[in-house]
Automatic annotation (TrEMBL):
Similarity comment: Belongs to the class-III pyridine nucleotide-disulfide oxidoreductase family.
Listed name of the protein: Pyridine nucleotide-disulfide oxidoreductase
PROSITE patterns for the chain: RHODANESE_3 (PS50206), UPF0033 (PS01148)
Single GO term (MF): oxidoreductase activity
Keywords: FAD, Flavoprotein, Oxidoreductase, Redox-active center
Naturally occurring in which organism (per UniProt): Macrococcus bovicus
Cofactors that this protein relies on: FAD
């Protein structure tokens, strides 16, 4: 009979104990646990705090009594292991203040992890918590209920920090989430984390990246940027380290992060001592290097395999890849293998692709978008994958993890036969599509560019629809919709590489195929404009609810039109909005439900660009639910204070329509505009018809035909070529007035335009006039906004000075 002592009764410890007994009735098994519970679901602790799990007993998978009665295991809870005497093969423990020496033939350490601590003044106070076990959970739950907690600061943007932020928010608590790095969830790369950032902010979390706290007081925290925030409670969730003090003091060999080093059968440098679970070091399958991966699946698998080994069974060495998933409000975020950060540290070459797909067939109700990122070697080995979406994320990450585990190539992803029916998948599942795209990349049939690889030496073509282009595009991109690309090939220079992009990549791929077949050197932007925008636009911070904020009074009408656009991919939802708004009367409202969370920002951009009003824009029940009103909601000088009382704001704006393309009138416009801006007025200049020539860039040539070409030849090329309204004399008059301005040290028109922009003067180009006058966006100076008459009229409501020049 062997005497086997196990230290640690959760996950790995409980698993090895149960498997040992199932394989052998002879061994005397003693399970030591410092806390009051064994085999509990520690991953479920945040969800009990947030009332998602309401029955506390369901977190207790096994009890000491059940393990003793059913498995004949000697379970000793609230017993602390103090010291290992390796020479005598003894373990010193303490229970209820009494010390005892336990002899062992085999000692198994499964002591787990401990929270990382940082030196913050005030961290020992009673309202500062960490979450590791059920007693911690109970203390947090009790404190929230007894102290009526309204605000909290969560420190750390990993799994525990995000889960706590979500569950505290669910209780109606205002949450500030601090992360010292530039992103949450370090297991995924920044390009995937940006979508999580946007979603956290949309949910009302005060996300503070690259910030931490320096001081904790009774009801406030001081941030690293010297701000003071209200915090009735503080959750420290910075991360975890192996709980290896017992092993270290016994002289066992430690490795990465002081995790216990073991061989392929989990044996330490002491032949009688083994280590499993979060306290131990593992060998990563992809990197081949030591790693610390504190995940429950690994701990439970190690427990089973160790019990097999101790009973004479052999097995293939366990080399995990680190597959994980987390729920972040309405999003699911999953990863497996290595991310780009890790691969760069290993100096490995790799390819990256982003695949946008749906959780199920788009025509079946409830389809939601997901983004899959796959990283693979030039030889096709899958290095890692990351997925962000609302539904079906777990299924797809498991498929890819399985392929990696059994060492299939990235091209093999297209071979996986996936169960298909409209409620569950698409006939072309996103995982299969990843395999197809990867094959195109590896065989060099399709060149891909990442967001930071766009060059001015390339022709940049946006193949989305004009409505999408108007909502925002990449600087210097020309809009040639996919449907008209073949007819407009003559607008492209065959001697210059072409980079194409759409919203998420599919139309860009089709456009690239067309261009490649016509002999162009073409590159498709991986991830499309959606990914580019996420990485080049900082998330907007949440406004402090306690500040007095003036907002337009916006009331949702009971008699509003409704559209269900769930499952539609961009630009589908926006096109639905436009089609309906076009049929509606001024002031009427439209409600639309969309399952693509990116619609939150899309609808705001569209409304701003088209002179309409977003009355309501929120995520609820896994959908974006927006209400849009045709035109402006109310005069913008009608405001609310923080308590909801109406305020009347004094008009202090200046607006002018710049209709003329004459030099002298343009000069007058900018003299007035900069003067008004210097008085603190908010100035809007609306350039229409001939006035568009004032804001043209010099040196831009755009190929035009027919009447468009005729207009272009008749009009001035840029501000430096404008005529004057009187005595122009074939351009001599304009040259004379410029000469006099220079002599009198008066700024040129070009300089005035630059000054106006630097002073915050808003310049809007009339999109209708642009169409009539054959003026394109690429011909206009940077910083100009685009809109219609509704945009101008909306600004006039705030103005007490209106001019037509």
């Amino acid at each position: 009979m062997r005497r086997i002592v196990i230290v640690g009764g959760v996950a790995g410890g409980a698993s090895v104990a149960a498997r040992l007994r199932r394989l052998n009735e002879e061994d005397h098994i003693i399970l030591i646990e410092r806390g009051p519970h064994v085999s509990f679901a520690n991953c479920g602790l945040p969800y009990y705090i947030g009332d998602e799990i309401t029955d506390r007993n369901k977190l207790l998978i096994q009890t000491p009594e059940l393990m003793h009665d059913r498995m004949n295991i000697d379970v000793r809870i609230q017993t602390e292991a103090l010291k290992i005497n390796r020479a005598e093969q003894q373990l010193l423990v303490k229970t209820a203040g009494q010390e005892e020496v336990i002899d062992y033939d085999i000692l198994i350490l499964s002591t787990g992890v401990k929270p990382i601590e940082i030196p913050v003044e005030g961290k020992e106070q009673s309202h500062v918590f960490t979450l590791r076990n059920i007693p911690d959970m109970d203390q947090i739950k009790t404190y929230i209920e007894e102290k009526n907690v309204k605000t909290t600061s969560v420190i750390g943007g990993g799994f525990i920090g995000l889960e706590m932020a979500e569950n505290l928010h669910a209780l109606g608590i205002q949450v500030s989430l601090f992360e010292l790095g530039n992103q949450v969830m370090p297991g995924v790369d920044l390009d995937m984390a940006q979508g999580i950032h946007e979603h956290l902010i949309q949910q009302g979390v005060d996300l503070r990246l690259e910030q931490s706290i320096t001081r904790i007081d009774s009801q406030t925290v001081t941030t690293s940027t010297n701000e003071t925030l209200t915090a009735d409670m503080v959750i420290m969730a910075i991360g975890v380290l192996p709980e290896s003090t017992l092993a270290e003091e016994a002289g066992l060999e430690l490795g990465l992060k002081k995790a216990i080093k073991t061989n392929d059968v989990f044996q330490t440098n002491d032949a009688h001592i083994y280590a499993i679970g979060d306290v131990s070091e593992v060998t990563h399958q992809i990197s081949g290097q030591a790693a610390h991966i504190p995940l429950a699946w690994i701990a439970n698998r190690q427990g089973r395999l160790l019990a097999d080994h101790l009973n004479g069974k052999t097995f293939e060495p366990l080399k995990p890849i680190g597959t994980a998933i987390a729920k972040v409000f309405d999003l699911n975020v999953a990863s497996t293998g290595l991310n780009e950060k890790a691969l760069k540290q290993l100096d490995k070459e790799y390819h990256v692709i982003h695949v946008s797909g749906q959780s199920n067939a788009s025509y079946y109700p409830g389809a939601t978008p997901m983004t899959i990122k796959v990283i693979f070697s030039p030889q096709g080995e899958i290095y890692g994958a990351q997925i962000v979406g609302r539904k079906g994320v777990d299924k797809r990450i498991d498929l890819i993890a399985s392929a990696m585990t059994f060492k299939q190539s990235v091209v093999d992803l297209q071979k996986i036969e996936i169960a298909y029916a409209p409620p569950f998948s698409s006939a072309k599942d996103p995982v299969n599509m990843a395999g197809y795209i990867a094959e195109n990349v590896l065989t060099d049939q399709m060149k891909m560019a990442q967001h930071d690889e766009i060059s001015d030496a390339q022709q940049l073509i946006d193949v989305r629809e004009p409505i999408e282009y108007d909502m925002g595009t990449i600087n210097n991109a020309k809009n040639i919709p996919l449907g008209s690309l073949r007819e407009r090939l003559n607008e492209l220079d065959r001697n210059v590489p072409v980079t194409v992009f759409c919203q998420v990549g599919q139309r860009g791929y089709n456009a690239a195929r067309i261009l490649k077949n016509h002999g162009f050197d073409v590159i498709n932007l991986d991830g499309g404009y959606k990914l580019y925008k996420q990485l080049h636009t900082a998330p907007k911070p949440v406004v402090d609810k306690k500040e007095t904020v003036k907002e337009e009074v916006k009331t949702v009408s009971e008699n509003r039109r409704f559209i269900e656009a769930s499952g539609l991919q961009c630009p589908g939802p926006i096109l639905k909005v436009k089609e309906n708004i076009d049929e509606m009367q001024e002031g009427e409202q439209l409600e639309i439900h969309v399952t693509d969370f990116g619609f939150c920002t899309d609808i705001d951009a569209w409304a701003n660009a088209t002179g309409n009003t977003v009355i309501s824009n929120k995520t609820e029940g896994g959908k974006v639910k927006a209400v849009v009103q045709k035109g402006r909601a109310l005069p913008v000088n009608v405001m609310n204070d923080a308590e909801g009382h109406q305020l009347v704001e004094t008009k202090n704006g200046a607006t002018m329509v710049v209709f003329s393309g004459d030099l002298d009138k343009a000069l007058a416009s900018f003299i007035i505009a900069t003067g008004a801006a210097s008085y603190g007025k908010e100035v809007t200049m609306f350039f229409t018809f001939w006035g568009l020539n004032v804001i043209k860039k010099p040196g831009i040539k755009v190929a035009k035909e027919g009447l468009d070409k005729a207009f272009a030849q008749m009009m001035p090329k840029h501000a430096g070529k404008l005529p004057i309204s009187k005595m122009n004399m074939g351009g001599m008059g304009a040259r004379m007035i410029r000469h006099v301005m220079n002599k009198k040290k008066v700024d040129s028109l070009e300089t005035m335009i630059e000054k106006a922009q630097s002073m915050g003067v808003k310049m809007v180009a009339c999109t209708m006039s642009m169409d009539i006058m054959a003026v394109t966006k690429e011909e206009l100076i940077d910083g100009v906004e685009y809109g219609g008459v509704a945009t101008y009229l909306g600004d006039t409501e705030k103005a007490n000075l209106n001019l037509f020049i």
